[in-house]
Specification:
Blueprint: H1 3-23, H2 27-34, H3 38-45, H4 53-63, H5 67-71, H6 74-81, H7 83-87, E1 99-110, E2 114-115, E3 123-127, E4 134-140, E5 153-157, E6 166-172, E7 175-184, E8 187-191, E9 200-203, E10 210-220
Parallel strand pairs: 1-4
Antiparallel strand pairs: 1-3, 2-7, 4-5, 5-10, 6-7, 6-10, 7-8, 8-9
Helix pairs in contact: 2-3
Amino acid sequence: MGSSDKTTKKIFASNLKRYMKEHKLTQAQIAKITNVSQQSVSNWLNEKQIPRMGAIEDLASYLHVFKSDLLEDKETADILKNKNTLYSGIKGIIPIPESRQVPMLGAIACGEPIYMDEERGEYYPLDTKIHADFCLRAEGDSMTGARICDGDIVFIQAVPEVENGSIAAVAIDDEATLKYFFQYGDTVVLRPANPKYQEMTYSQDDLNRVRVLGRAVAFQSGL
């Protein structure tokens, strides 16, 4: 477990306790609002677990707050909400856009397919203007022509179908890969963005092995 994950759990627990006190909410009421068990709420409060984004969205909606108010420390959340006032007119400063936390689904291959780890524990920030349901960590170099490199975080909008030419996260059996997606009748072609890799083609009975997880909408590279 990374230190960032522990910090997120600690901050969320602190914020949840504060809002429960302010609104006089019990664990049972929080469980009902978020459609989870009271044990899950207890785990959140004891920094053992962080809820999935759907539960966070339900809670934020009920409390009439931003999701960042639940997932970030109060000082940071206040700065982000007031950033236009704080930084307005200061040359050379570009305010950080308001962000939300997107769950990490696991790793995805940029090359040969790799096993897809569906255990969610980490969250990564993303501009609220971009619609993504989860993110994946790229492994390999088959998509470098699309500027997606090994270790990059790729944000995915969960959709069952994508347009030809879209960069898609695709499950093949129990493995996953990130490629340009094309479908021609009963044939699916997964095309890399690196000439040293070959296209992957699936047709007829093999199509049952292929499932689109979603469309890549953004990626985040290390400095």
